[in-house]
Amino acid sequence: MYRAPRGTVDILPAEQAYWTLVHTRAAEVCRLYGYERIDTPVFEDYGLFARTDAKGTDLVEKEMYVFEDRSGQKLTLRAENTAPVCRAYVEHGMFNLPQPVRLYYVGPTFRYERPQAGRYRQHHQFGCEAVGDAAATLDVEGIELALRFLSSLGLQQLSVFLNSIGCRECQPKYVEILRHHYQAVSTRVCDDCRIRMIRNPLRLLDCKEPGCKAIADAAPHTSDYLCTECEAHFGEVQEHLRLLEIPFTLNHKLVRGLDYYTRTVYEIQPQREAGQSAIVGGGRYDGLIEQIGGRPTPAVGFATGLERIILNLKEQGIEAPPVGAPGVYVAHIGDAARRTALSVSKRLRDSHVGVITSTGGKSLKSQLRHANSLGVRYAVILGDNEVQRHEVVLRDMAANVQETLPQGTLLSRLQYG
What we know:
Layout (H helix, E strand, L loop, with lengths): L15 H18 L2 E2 L5 E3 H7 L5 H6 L2 E3 L5 E4 L4 H10 L9 E10 L11 E10 L4 H17 L5 E7 L6 H13 L7 H9 L10 H8 L10 H16 L5 E2 L11 E9 L9 E5 L3 H4 L7 E7 H10 L12 E5 L2 H16 L4 E3 L6 H11 L3 E5 L1 H6 L1 E6 L4 E6 L3 H7 L1
Parallel strand pairs: 1-5, 7-8, 12-13, 12-14
Antiparallel strand pairs: 2-4, 3-4, 5-6, 6-11, 7-9, 9-10, 10-11, 14-15, 15-16
Helix pairs in contact: 1-5, 5-9
């Protein structure tokens, strides 16, 4: 028996209402801020990710699905969305458009990691990118947009955590100070952190091992080593958040999992998770487009996992509104009624009324039981007598009452009651 591959799930009809809800709210909120949708391929040149993320990170070395096509080109399934969006920005000359270019995406990403609740090897992300402007107001716009999206879904009690990790000018100095801090306790850190000390020191602050977390708590703060420009930028971000009355908490250990981030980094977390599970992560990446062959271009963005969003909706008892199943069931008894049922159903659908037409030779009782199980509002019943008189029986399934009316008045009766 075949099963879905480990780390993937089927999104069944019963779950689709949640997916429709998050897709709809994402599009609505992005429209309010002027973000336009972009869709990139689900596979990219391997070099796009290998070049934009440092060697030694889990993404490049452990998590990407890498393969060669029939021509021998090395490709990878899309591991995250920011690098592909930036590639599209450069490839299609979007730098010639009015800046910043505001883009959003919704789609699957693929990472080979240990599956857990709300986190799968194929998962779906919604995210926004504002490319071409270094203003701190864009950093804050992303945070505000993400919070508005979450609140539009009904999610409450969310915490914003904020940090600045500096730029290419001031970050190297901090990295050396951080490495010196860890060298004094190198025998007490985990094996992964010993590798991070050499390859990717900022990720030392993100280690989840209890012993390493205590060392990270005592580490120097990135905000104490910012250059003048980064310090001013970080101050503006905080000022604008206060102006918008968005509470936030500074977290000196906050870094992002990808290597291209600069300056502002942030996460949004449910308060009850006690800081263990971010549902939104984002920040500024002013050097990324230059890394993939474009000219120096500032940019900032965020991403959120839809599976984790839906998990939080369920945990908070938030039900998604029904997608809108057909509201009419056409039941029929006899060959003549069956043929008439097909034409009645077509006329209703032509007028944008959703219809389920009964199939097979079930009894009327079985057909009505089927209609009731589907949750339809009305059943249209046709038999030999109704066909001969050009009538239908309309049954209100909720009120358990029915009436006989001419076929020609059925549509107006359904539309206007």
